Amino acid sequence: MDRSCGMWAKGLALGFALLLCGADVALAAEKIVIGAMYPMTGRAGRYGIDSVSAAEIAMNEINAKGGVNGRMIDIIFNDSKANPAYSIKVAKRYITEDKVNFLMGVVSSAVGLAVTEVSKENKVIFVGTDHASTALTTEKFQPYYFRVSNNTYQSAAAAALYAKDKKDWKKYYVIGPDYEYGHRTWEDFWMLLGKKRTDVQLVGQAWPKLFEPDYTPYITAILNAKPDVLVTTFWGGDTVAFIKQALPYKLFDKMKFYNYDAGGNYELLEAMPTGLPGGLVLSARHHLNWPDTKLNKEFVDNFKAKTGRYPSYAAEGAYAGVYFIAEGVRQAGTAEDPDKLVAVMEKLKFKLPEDPEGFMSYMRPIDHQIVQVQAIGETVPDKSFPPATMMLGNWKVFKAEDIIPSVEEIEAARKAVKK
Amino acid sequence: MAPSARQGAEGARAIRERAGNTLDSSLIVAQFISGLTSAMTLFLVASGLTLIFGVVNVFNFAHGSFYLLGAYFAYQVVAVSGVGFWAGVLLASLGAGAAGVLMEYFFLRRIYGRSGEAGFQILLTYSFILILDDVVKMIWGTDYKSISKPEALAGPLSVGEVTMPRYDLVVIAIGLAVAVGMWAAIRKTRFGRNLRAISSNREMASSLGVNVPLTLSLVFGLATALGGLSGAIAAPVRTVTPGAGIEVIIGSLIVVVIGGLGNFWGALVGALVIGEVTAFGILFLPQWAILFSYAVMALVLVFRPEGLLMKKGNAR
């Protein structure tokens, strides 16, 4: 209830801000303005709401220390409605009317692909914070786009390295939502694993529709195929529903459950305070309890203090986005010269909550994709983040350089599209 | 990586192998039971949808939202207030029914008989999907909610080689009980007689002394309570999240189209057909699973557009 009231208040505040902005022009010129777009409704609403809170935390931290080169950061938020056509309108309005210096946000890759076109046309830098489609940094790459969270290729590559060493994982079954994300997350993994292991086979696959409420008939079919490992590329509530329905069939005693891109998101651990089995192999773009660093603890605690809940992984992406912009502006000494900013930002190196000791996330000039360490864990009993009673543990950590596509691969991918 | 993804797809295809389906009888029984469970959850929503259409003559797009309300009410009563599970399910259905009566009384009633009623109905009931979704989000937030099943029903029941979730068996029993109860209510009670009279001729029923507005409100309440019941019993096994209503309304729509819009038994037959066709489709061709229910609907629309259980030329 509180949260929604907060949203209403924000909406009203935004309305007033728009009314008053005529009088505010002199001030606005000195601020660094970020136009952010996040979904506030539907299944992805949680990610949007968490992203907004985390972006505000980052903004307040930076402004409390005097801003960037003496300039304050100001973020305008708008609902992307997870709709590409609508988001294009919002992005254009941000650029022409609000005169934003940067675009940021977006949970859906479809929206990301739409907004990156606006960014390219108008030469306004677009910082992607959560959407994961690899296309944005390869085939559809344009120089004013940057992504500060990892893409599906990176998690699939880490997953393939993890699976490579599991000698008894031979028979695979895959089930995932029937759209680009579900298929791509699987195919990247399977292709990479196939290069390392010749003794693995796919014994079955199923592609129910996104948000399918009832997986029972799939579960009996999966049991019948007797795989060693069940790979799922579900996210959010679909993972929750699948696990709930598979439990009485004792599916988790009969095979390993593997969801390496979004399965380890806190929203899943939180949604199943009772009944979540141990030993599920999961990962996500950010974890509350890994790495065990001061920065990560502070990020999680500040988020909890501000919102009363723990963040889903989208939050850390938005937090990273604001810091990335701030650091870029600080080093470039401008927020108005996009080409100068690009030259600085594509070589940025900066410390994030998800970076383990001794590592800093960095941007790669070839694809403007952030390079980060990836950790995959198993569910173990852990009550440190209630209401969850299971968290990830038994971590395996994969070096950032081992899970990115090579420069040659990226160039080949781009050439293939141009033809 | 475009090329590597393409290689991936090819690699996947090369290694792709048909699941070694050894079709023993226990598997067929297990699959039949899981199809039956899906069918019953669908039936509870679809029966209400078809009842409202048959009697009130409204296509209630928002019907899935009462499923959603049922699920959240059950969460509130069972997980938050700590009331017992079955009492919670009952209260949740009553709550959804009460919400349905309110919606009928304050909104739908005002557009009966207007010219171009269908257009108003669609706009009004569709807007209720959005309104109820937002109400749910304001009250309960966007995170996923969970209810535990009653302890005794949490595990599986093994009969010979067949393993089936106990809870699913209860869901099937509830569905069948509702079907029989509804049949008795429609055929054997005074309320049922009024309801059938209104369904065949509203003015005539009214002039014969049937309290039409009251009956319509009650029908709406009953139907939405069934939707709520479906949501409440699905809450322990599905995702309780805003937007869940839209997902069930599509399945229910397919069911009523197959069975015949406005036909109560049609909803049962349609749900059984969809549940079992989907279950066995998945067993044989899992990668084409989504196709089956739509294919059945398309076939029915082509060869028997009035629905399986409707007589030709008979509206309901």
Question: What does the model show?
Answer:
- The complex is a heterodimer of chains A (419) and B (316).
- Chain A has 419 residues and is of the alpha/beta class.
- Chain A folds into two domains: 31-149 and 292-371, 3-Layer(aba) Sandwich (Rossmann fold), CATH 3.40.50; 153-284 and 374-403, Rossmann fold (3-Layer(aba) Sandwich), CATH 3.40.50.2300.
- Helix content of chain A is 44%, strand content 17%.
- Chain A contains 15 helices and 15 strands.
- In chain A, the strands form three sheets. Chain A has a seven-stranded mixed sheet with strand order 7-6-8-9-10-14-15. In chain A, strands 2-1-3-4-5 form a five-stranded parallel sheet, sandwiched between helices. Chain A has a three-stranded antiparallel sheet with strand order 11-12-13, covered by helices on one side.
- In chain A, helix 4 (84-96) packs parallel to helix 5, helix 6 runs parallel beside helix 7 and helix 13 (314-332) packs across helix 14 (338-345).
- Chain A is globular.
- The termini of chain A are far apart.
- Mean pLDDT of chain A is 90; it is low at 1-8 and 14-29.
- Chain B is an all-alpha fold and 316 residues long.
- Chain B has one domain (23-303): Orthogonal Bundle (ABC transporter involved in vitamin B12 uptake, BtuC).
- Helix content of chain B is 71%, strand content 3%.
- Chain B has helices spanning 2-15, 25-56, 63-80, 85-106, 117-140, 166-188, 190-200, 202-207, 212-234, 244-259, 264-284, 291-303, and strands at residues 156-159, 162-165.
- Chain B has a two-stranded antiparallel ribbon.
- In chain B, a hairpin with a 2-residue loop joins strand 1 and strand 2 (162-165).
- The longest helix of chain B has 32 residues, at 25-56.
- The radius of gyration of chain B is 21 Å and the shape is globular.
- Mean pLDDT of chain B is 86; it is low at 1-21.
- Chains A and B meet through helix 3, helix 7, strand 7, helix 8 and helix 9 of A and helix 1, helix 2, helix 5, helix 6 and helix 10 of B.
